[in-house]
Amino acid sequence: MQATNLLILSPVAERGGAERVMVDTLKYLNRSKFHAKIVFFEQGSLVEEMRSLGYAAEVLDAGRLRDVGIYVRVVGALRGLIRQDAIDVVVSWMPKAHLYGGIAALLEGKKSIWWQHMIPKPHWMDRIASKIPAHGVLCPSRVSKHFQEKLTPKKRVMLNNLGVDLEQFGSKVHSVSDARAKMGLREDAVVFAFVGRLQRWKRPDVVIRAFNEAARGKNAYLLIIGGTLFGLEQEFEQELKQLAEVGDPSKVIFLGHQKDVGAILEAADTVVHASLMEPFGMVIIESMAAQKAVIAVGQGGPVEIITNGDDGFLYDGSQQQLVHLMGRILDGQLPLEEMGRKARLTVEKKFTVTHMAERFESNIRFILN
Known about the structure:
By secondary structure, the protein is α/β, with parallel strands linked by helices. The chain is built from 14 helices and 13 strands.
């Protein structure tokens, strides 16, 4: 059987959540059945990373959407690539890419599909992307799919759960004591972790406030793993550090961006997730793969991942209930190790990169039929 040729379009070339999903999907793609070429709309580290994985990758500078001349040029260049490489399906990673890829595919009479990484909002880009013809829209969760269907009720909106690379998380290369010693943490302390970009919608401020209250006078630390990205809300990190000063600043440790989050997580007892309407929760499944019981808000994507009280905790999103759960953990009332083992099993059964790539392949085959 002849391989299916894909043209993958990404508006950015640095790692964010959606871009990490793209890289992992292509890393585990069945290359005997699918060939892919990747086009980025700007320069960045992902260009060489994709080439190192054996993919052809190039850059088409798309500039700003408001520049009609550049837009027409980019769409024309994409049409040329579709013809040159006998592309079967144009896959646009994120709505912005579909503004170009969807039109190029339509003009060339080819199938197109795009990735909706978020819960769509009534933003002009989501609305326009949803109106451009497409044979499918991939969503990471049922909640994301539900809201996307309100924008594209007649189109094929398909579920494509995310997955984690089990080799990167939960390998236990270092012992807990070694991981803590490396960061100067007491071995007998209770260690919480927040992982994610420092943006207001992810609510790390709520986590810090809850920790300040619950951990007062206790042997505990809070690791803040992540920083600002893409130039968004750069002042927020300083606000968070000032908030940490309200409690014991020596107990709230800002680690910034980390390439090997799995190694850092080995030092933690549990991971706290605070987004009120998370479209999926990549950090959640990564932490679960690392055998950590995750505390997450009981709406959106986390509800589709965590079984409350079994392999993690779901709370109502309030600071008050988060303080209560943290207090129970600090008092040793919850079986974190047992829940962590169950969390790992949940990921192994449902949320690996292999599962994610297989779902992607299945969705591609579906739109071709």
